[in-house]
Amino acid sequence: MVEVVTDWRGLPDRLTGAAVAIGAFDGVHRGHQAVIATAREAARSLGAPLGVVSFDPHPRRWFQPDAAPFRLMSPAQMVRALGPLGVDRLYLLPFDADMAAMSDEDFAREVLARGLRIRHAAVGFDFTYGKGRTGSPEGLRRQGETLGFGVAVCDRVDDPDGLKLSSSAVREALKAGDMTRAAAILGRPFAIEGEVVHGDKRGRTIGVPTANVRLGDYMRPAFGIYATRTRLPDGRVLDGVASLGVRPMYALDEPLLEVWLFDFDGDLYGQTVETDLIAFLRGEETFADLDALKRQIDADAAAARAALAPG
Predict the structure, then answer these.
(1) Could you tell me which residues are beta bridge partners of residue 224?
(2) Of 160, 191, 158, 185, nearest to 170 (Cα)?
(3) What is the per-residue pLDDT across 246-292, written as a single tens digit (0 to 9) for each?
(4) Burial (Cβ within 10 Å: 0-12, 13-18, ≥19) of residue 61
């Protein structure tokens, strides 16, 4: 189980001395996994715990508070994604005014060397850090030599077929509704996790009750209809079909994920669910009346069942 540590100051000895991978790691995609694998090799060689150093909020949110939502995963999803990679500890450090003001030398010395007392760091080829993003992988390597930790710099990793493995490439795929490409980069389907909230309950009037989840700071994939799989708090995984967007027929105030879970009859309000967006079926549309909408929902459900069928 991944242990989450939320500061670098005043840590007991047992929480220090790890070999770490450092980065935002939003999505923990296959490129990120390669950096973590490099840190894992160092951890095994040194007999040290394997850690990941990341930040909350994402630095981009700190510096661009009014930017459009862009996150690919929540902290809880990050923890679950890191577990199968052998990570012992996630240092989810607060990105605040103090962190933002640190020079690259201060970050290496105060956070990595004195605070976390790391033994080794692995970073990507494009890693930057410190105020003004003045720190580079080679700079960290030099600082590590002075401060007493090793540094490995990972080359860019791409799929053998030329698929770019980056968070920006995932976002591009999601905006295009290309869920297959997004999943290929991530190594798993893109998923939205959140609390089920009350909606306007229009779906119930046509026999299609939905579990509604606000998108929060998740980036907005293409608006439309998706084939989905949803994990419930009790461990069940249910197929379904979802509308993601503002429902132009009713003009919602904010985008919403509305999932119709097949063969489910229960109350999920206030519970947290996680929904994989497996396949994009069509874009948002308006309909002349509820009967036309219901006919399209039935067709969407059939298309979702077909997309989710084995083989």
Answers:
(1) 244, 283
(2) 185
(3) 875 555 668 999 999 999 989 999 999 999 999 999 998 888 788 88
(4) middle
Q: What's the pTM value of the predicted model, to 2 decimals?
A: 0.92
Provide the residue type at 22 as one letter: I
For 19-50, the pLDDT digits (tens) are: 999 999 999 999 999 999 999 999 999 999 99
Answer for the pair 170, 72: CB distance below 8 angstroms, yes or no. yes
CA atoms within 13 A on the CB side of 250: 17
Spatial distance between the Cα atoms of 39 and 19, rounded to a whole number of angstroms = 6
Q: Quick count: other Cβ atoms within 10 Å of Cβ 19?
A: 27
Q: Rounded to the nearest 5°, which phi and psi values hold at 210? A: -125, 150
CA distance 276 to 307: 13
Reported as a single tens digit per residue, the pLDDT across 209-224 is 899 999 999 999 999 9
**Residue bearing tokens 């033994």:** 119
CB atoms within 10 A of CB 92: 18
